[in-house]
Amino acid sequence: MKILRAIKFLFYFQLVSAMFLIAPASWAESPVPAEVSDAQQVVARLHDALIKAMRESVSLGYKGRYELLAPVIDQTHDIDFIARTSLGANWTQLSSEQQHTFIDVFRKLSIGTYAGWFKEYGGEQFEFVEQQQMPREQVMVRSKLVPPKGEPVRFDYILRHEKAGWRIVNILADGVSDLALKRVEYRAILQRDGFATLVDMLRKKIVLTEQS
């Protein structure tokens, strides 16, 4: 199935490029108690929207998928936290205007990436595997995208609790951390070429998601 191959290729390509791999299994602690099952509901909300985007991909087009997914991403992801974490200590060196610009562009790219990836449907379904407690009072919700034929893709979500409830702060596809890849790529560009180049690179990626 094309979407599964594309997701695997993209993550593995970024992994080789960044030469960075995270092994989340080593973080796992005891199973999560029942009272934090709201975390799974957050992931389920995202999955439902992704399946809908895939099923209605032709009629929606890229713009329609983007508009469908945008409010769901805002509700299920802590975009501000992910954006800040991707830059690490460099974040505090940016002006307030630069921080606002980065979060805005980062959000658009995050939504656009989902809209660009999840555009075909061939009977795939998301299945939950388990929940695990993580360090720093975070939770991992483990799942997989299962096609009618072929190997499934593992999607493990790291969530943290905030005032608005549980929010996704990292996603691992077949064990590869999306946040870790971003941290390596973004920090290198920022330190080597500066803020304007980093933002320009993200905007170019947004254009590519529209054309994918």
* Terminal-residue CA separation: 16 Å
Strand order of the largest sheet: 1-2-3-4-5
Strand tally is 5
Biggest beta-sheet profile: 5 strands, antiparallel
The percent range for strand residues is 15-25%
Keywords:
globular; 212 residues; Nuclear Transport Factor 2, Chain: A; five-stranded antiparallel beta sheet; alpha+beta
Quick structural gist:
The chain has 212 residues and is of the alpha+beta class.
Explain what you see.
- The chain starts with a helix and ends with a helix.
- The relative contact order is 0.20.
- It has a single domain (2-13, 30-211), classed as Tgt2/MlaC (Nuclear Transport Factor 2, Chain: A, Roll), CATH 3.10.450.710.
- With 212 residues, the protein is α+β, with helices and mostly antiparallel strands.
- The longest helix has 22 residues, at 96-117.
- α2 packs antiparallel against α3 (57-76) and α5 runs parallel beside α7 (195-211).
- The chain contains 7 helices and 5 strands; from the N terminus they run αααααβββββαα.
